[in-house]
């Protein structure tokens, strides 16, 4: 008994020692000494994804006036070149680095290993290290709410969706949008066009036009610019934007947009580092935390429909219900989530199938 007790005490002591060592390795940095670097997939002027990250960076500075000026690098492609950019930021004195696109993940992990005293945060990935955490938002919640609007506003019962890359993040968004639409209009079908790109205004616009030609009278999107909304405005077709309030690109036809408030996370992170309580967590916030939300509604959206959206939003925020709770069927009619079951975060993060109502395939 004493031997087992002694063994347990030794094991616990070692564990505490390891925790202490890990904590000691990441020392607090006073707010006035935090120099942050941001790596962007597109230009700040895209009006969408990168623009909203940069708005979040600005919010971080507004809330921390003693924070030194941050460094940004735009138009960094996903791939080996991102490692060079990350390394360059560290050499320029950045002790906190944010990588804002999925394809930076493996390269950031490698750089993080070489710089154990630097804090790294990666957006939308799943790999962590002692000095690297991940962050993302439950955009599927806002997507679902926007789908309710699209499903109620369509007259043709055909919705279009301009889709960036065939990865779980985008698939999850398409599914949430479709579930929302079919919750108010079971006749709805959602047609997909893949861009195989995050930011390509020309492709985005052409994809929107092709979906309109295919009969879609409301267009949803997962793309980084305002090109698809512009195409919809020109064609007189309703559009659900993304990333930012896209109404400036489609003043008459924009219904609403699922949008990001990245500043909530950036402000939180620098404060955690300054207070010495940062940990390499996997942050996945949603409507409740305010990281995602809906842009204001077009006046064409009836008040009763707005109330329906608000009611569903409250249910999600309260935890009473969430989007991927069963029953849910895939597009082949197979039951994927049973009536009383809930998809786990891991299952949602790895989603690789379409729900009933989606017309399209997922490229390998």
Automatic annotation (TrEMBL):
Protein's UniProt name:
Basic membrane lipoprotein
> Where are the membrane-spanning stretches?
none
Q: Which InterPro entries match?
A: ABC-Purine-Binding, PnrA-like
Q: Report the residue ranges that make up the ABC transporter substrate-binding protein PnrA-like domain in this protein.
A: 37-317
From which residue to which does the signal peptide run? 1-24
Entry superkingdom = Bacteria
Keywords per UniProt: Lipoprotein, Signal
Q: Which Gene3D superfamilies match?
A: 3.40.50.2300
Q: Which GO terms describe its cellular component?
A: plasma membrane
Q: Which organism is it from?
A: Dethiosulfovibrio peptidovorans DSM 11002
């Amino acid at each position: 008994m004493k031997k087992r007790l002694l063994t347990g005490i030794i094991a616990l002591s070692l564990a505490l020692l390891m925790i202490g060592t890990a904590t000691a390795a990441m020392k607090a940095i006073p707010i006035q000494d935090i120099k942050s670097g941001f790596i962007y997939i597109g230009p700040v002027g895209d009006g969408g994804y990168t623009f909203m990250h940069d708005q979040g960076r600005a919010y971080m500075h507004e809330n921390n006036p003693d924070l030194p000026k941050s460094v940004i690098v735009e138009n960094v492609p996903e791939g080996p070149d991102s490692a060079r950019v990350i390394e360059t930021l560290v050499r320029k004195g950045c002790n906190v680095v944010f990588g804002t696109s999925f394809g930076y993940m493996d390269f950031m992990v490698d750089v993080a290993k070489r710089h154990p005293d630097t804090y790294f945060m990666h957006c939308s990935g799943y790999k962590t290290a002692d000095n690297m955490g991940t962050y993302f938002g439950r955009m599927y919640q806002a997507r679902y709410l926007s789908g309710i609007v699209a499903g109620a506003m369509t007259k043709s019962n055909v919705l279009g969706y301009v889709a960036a890359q065939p990865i779980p993040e985008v698939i999850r968004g398409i599914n949430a949008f479709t579930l929302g639409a079919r919750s108010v209009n079971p006749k709805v079908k959602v047609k997909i066009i893949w861009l195989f790109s995050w930011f390509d205004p020309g492709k985005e616009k052409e994809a929107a036009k092709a979906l309109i030609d295919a009969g879609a009278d409301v267009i949803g999107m997962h793309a980084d610019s305002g090109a698809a909304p512009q195409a919809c405005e020109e064609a007189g077709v309703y559009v659900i934007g993304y990333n930012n309030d896209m109404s400036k690109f489609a003043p008459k036809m924009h219904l609403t947009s699922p949008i990001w408030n990245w500043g909530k996370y950036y402000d939180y992170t620098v404060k955690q580092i300054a207070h010495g309580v940062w940990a390499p967590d996997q942050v996945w916030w949603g409507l409740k935390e305010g990281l995602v939300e809906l842009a204001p509604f077009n006046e064409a959206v009836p008040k009763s429909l707005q109330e329906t959206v608000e009611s569903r939003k409250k249910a999600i925020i309260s935890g009473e219900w969430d989007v991927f709770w069963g029953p849910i069927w895939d597009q082949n009619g197979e039951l994927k989530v049973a009536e009383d079951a809930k998809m786990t975060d891991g299952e949602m993060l790895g989603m690789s199938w379409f729900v009933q109502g989606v017309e399209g395939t997922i490229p390998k």
